[in-house]
Design goal:
Layout (H helix, E strand, L loop, with lengths): L1 H7 L4 E4 L5 H13 L4 E4 L6 H15 L4 E4 L15 H22 L8 E5 L3 H4 L5 H21 L5 E5 L6 H6 L11
Parallel strand pairs: 1-2, 3-4, 4-5
């Protein structure tokens, strides 16, 4: 939905996705191109700094610039309580949900100009918590703090940094179940 909204307003978009989500990525690309947008699909898990650098490199190679970053990668694994959250799960959740944002911004910063924008996806769980998503909620709280700190850090460069905090959403299901004309976006 985010990619389609940007394409509707003339943006070229880059979408990173997991290989198991190839069908959803293809459907999204179809919607983007039907709005006349350009779309680069990158089958990359943002679980390493190297993959995040590759995203920025491929974006610059293809489109020559970056105006807006939407940090939207995320994962969660519901558990009945903290005792069920393994170290591996905790590290993976923070790696995808938080560290990838640091890595993407760090790699992209030299390409961002005055007026550029960074939009981070937090969640309502950052504010209200979740008994079954303790590690996920903690990452979303970290994203709120990251966003506030990054905004203060980049204010002199005139780069805007904001976050959105949606409730539960499963975007691939929503996008792939709608016809193009039924997708409603802001503006």
């Amino acid at each position: 939905a985010v990619a389609v909204a940007f394409a509707k307003h003339g943006a070229a978009v880059v979408i990173c996705y997991l290989k198991k989500e190839e069908k959803d990525a293809a459907v999204t690309k179809k919607f983007v191109t039907e709005y006349g947008g350009k779309c680069l699909l990158l089958p990359l898990n943002l679980n390493t700094e190297e993959h995040c650098k590759k995203v920025i490199q491929k974006t610059i190679e293809r489109f020559k610039r970056i105006d807006i970053i939407v940090n939207n990668a995320g994962t969660h694994y519901p558990q009945p309580g903290i005792e069920s959250i393994s170290s591996k799960q905790l590290q993976e959740t923070f790696n995808i949900n938080v560290f990838s944002m640091f890595y993407i911004v760090k790699a992209a910063l030299k390409y961002l100009k005055k007026g550029s924008s960074i939009i981070n996806t937090a969640s309502v769980t950052a504010y209200r918590g979740s008994a079954h998503l303790i590690d996920y909620s903690a990452t979303k709280g970290a994203i709120v703090s990251f966003t506030r700190s990054l905004a203060a850090s980049l204010i002199d460069k005139k780069i805007r940094v904001n976050a959105v905090a949606p409730g539960p959403v499963w975007t691939p299901l929503i996008v792939s179940s709608l016809k193009l004309k039924e997708i409603k976006t802001f503006g």
